[in-house]
Inverse folding.
């Protein structure tokens, strides 16, 4: 079985689109996913499955819509992909304050045209680097103050996205390696 990480967008934020993690876990069990764990209330799932990531995204999105009555975009990566992303972050080193780092997961690879347009934007001192289906972000200040937020990348790249801070990324990686 492959260890998977599902990142759900926009649940339990400001009391809207509320899903209890116990209910989400029960739903995943009904879908046949195995060794399910949740991490914090913002929609991070870990589980084992042989299904392809895109199939899991569709399965989870459809099941959440049916069970809870609202749309929740889901992005799935496996533990090896997460490990590679941690290694490849151009802003991450031993001297970096991890509170300044974020990772935006893209639902799909953006078009070449949208990618090229987006890469022309400069919001120094904040920086970003797009790599395939992820965006590495360095924020000098607080994430909620940067223009390099989730909505910016969704609008410019014209793909669905969701963002996690680096502390969450490291914790998800740690949990994905744990044997249950």
């Amino acid at each position: 079985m492959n260890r998977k990480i599902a990142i759900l967008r926009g649940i339990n934020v400001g009391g809207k689109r509320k899903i209890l993690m116990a209910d989400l876990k029960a739903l995943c069990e009904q879908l046949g996913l195995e060794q399910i764990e949740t991490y914090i209330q913002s929609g991070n799932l870990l589980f084992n499955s042989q299904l392809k990531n895109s199939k899991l995204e569709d399965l989870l999105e459809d099941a959440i819509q049916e069970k809870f009555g609202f749309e929740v975009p889901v992005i799935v990566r496996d533990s090896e992909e997460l490990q590679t992303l941690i290694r490849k972050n151009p802003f991450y080193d031993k001297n970096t304050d991890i509170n300044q780092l974020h990772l935006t997961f893209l639902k799909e690879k953006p078009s070449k045209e949208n990618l090229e347009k987006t890469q022309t934007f400069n919001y120094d001192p904040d920086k970003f680097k797009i790599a395939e289906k992820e965006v590495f972000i360095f924020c000098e200040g607080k994430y909620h103050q940067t223009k390099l937020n989730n909505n910016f990348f969704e609008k410019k790249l014209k793909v669905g996205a969701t963002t996690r801070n680096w502390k969450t990324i490291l914790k998800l990686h740690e949990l994905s390696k744990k044997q249950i």
About this structure: The beta strands are 2-8, 34-39, 44-49, 74-78, 101-106, 127-131, 134-138, 161-165. The chain has six helices and eight strands.
